[in-house]
From TrEMBL:
Residues 18-245 form the Nucleotidyl transferase domain. This is Mannose-1-phosphate guanylyltransferase. Residues 260-353 form the Mannose-1-phosphate guanyltransferase C-terminal domain. InterPro entries: GMPPB_C, Mannose-1P_guanyltransferase, NTP_transferase_dom, Nucleotide-diphossugar_trans, Trimer_LpxA-like_sf. It comes from Haloactinomyces albus. Its EC number is 2.7.7.13. Belongs to the transferase hexapeptide repeat family. GO terms for molecular function: mannose-1-phosphate guanylyltransferase (GTP) activity.
Amino acid sequence: MSAGSAGPGESALRGVEAVVLVGGRGTRLRPLTLSAPKPMLPTAGVPFLTHVLSRLRAAGITHVVLGTSYQAEVFAEYFGDGAALGMELEYVVEQEPLDTAGAIRNVADRLREQDVVVFNGDILSGVDLHGLVHTHRHHSADATLHLVKVDDPRRFGCVPTDADGRVTAFLEKTDDPPVDQVNAGCYVFRRPVIESIPPGRPVSVERETFPGLLASGARLQGHVDASYWLDLGTPAAFVRGSADLVRGAAPSEALPARPGEALVLDRAEVSSEASVTGGSTIGADCVIEAGAAVTGSTLFARAHVEADAVVERSVLGAGARVGKGAVVRGGVIGDGAVIGAECELLDGARVWPGVELPPSGVRFSHDC
Ligand code: GTP
């Protein structure tokens, strides 16, 4: 990402700053999130948060406050004051997690502008931020929500809007949702609305703040945008998002190489008789031996895939090892874990850091 002007064809958004929420424990991504918070997990060669920040920067938003809690210190250690990205980053730490709206309220004294874009720190999104802010200002909204249409809205709470795009309700998950549009985890708030959130206690933006605003007659606007959108909260979504970034299907200004079938990072050794495809990332100092096939997977630094092994739609943590002829499909292998030769790991199985599964030919479909 280059420091300087806004992205191609875009003017900088004026009078707008951003808050990114990065304090969650990321329990669904365990064991990967035991060693790093979800927004810091290596994704297409850089910590995931870099992609989010690159989108903000491309829209000309340069002042960003990060709401941190879980492993709070690692964000500042990596990103510092943000100058390398052409941004000004600030960090606010919650001693106890304050949930989403509590976290937004907790950074209020760092805000300077009238309009504040808020992003969940685990969303990969091509939303047009100019369009989102335009909708917000055009309707003089108190808050504007990016909404996405999904194939199966039963898995989400849905957000109906009227003919003018005004939000009419926040509905819990149901088997028969009346609309297919859901909250995409990205909002614009008027700053006084942020200041009206009760301070110092956990508050959920979806369960408390938005329904409360609606009940009080505030104007909540929906902004439907059909660009790329993915919540990287689960292992399956994480590998998909990473592969989409590597192949250029997901938007980012922070990809460290040109889009392609694979991203091979520094000093990784990939045998000429191995195949690495489907947007896989091979982390620094990894080894992929002859006959191995890695597809649609993310390998953190120093992972090792031995000869004739198959790794599909999976994440291998730092220093993890997959033995000769082993098969890992849809698996999450913790840092330093070892999958013995000829073992087979089925979809959804997770191996905890440091666990060693002996060579056996056994099939594992559960957590180990
Ligand atoms: P799971 O435990 O797997 O549900 O993940 P999570 O903890 O990240 O929760 P969730 O995906 O619902 O969070 C959405 C976004 O809000 C993520 O970017 C989180 O980092 C962030 N977030 C969630 N809870 C808090 C909190 O208490 N404080 C802060 N600062 N951010 C939070």
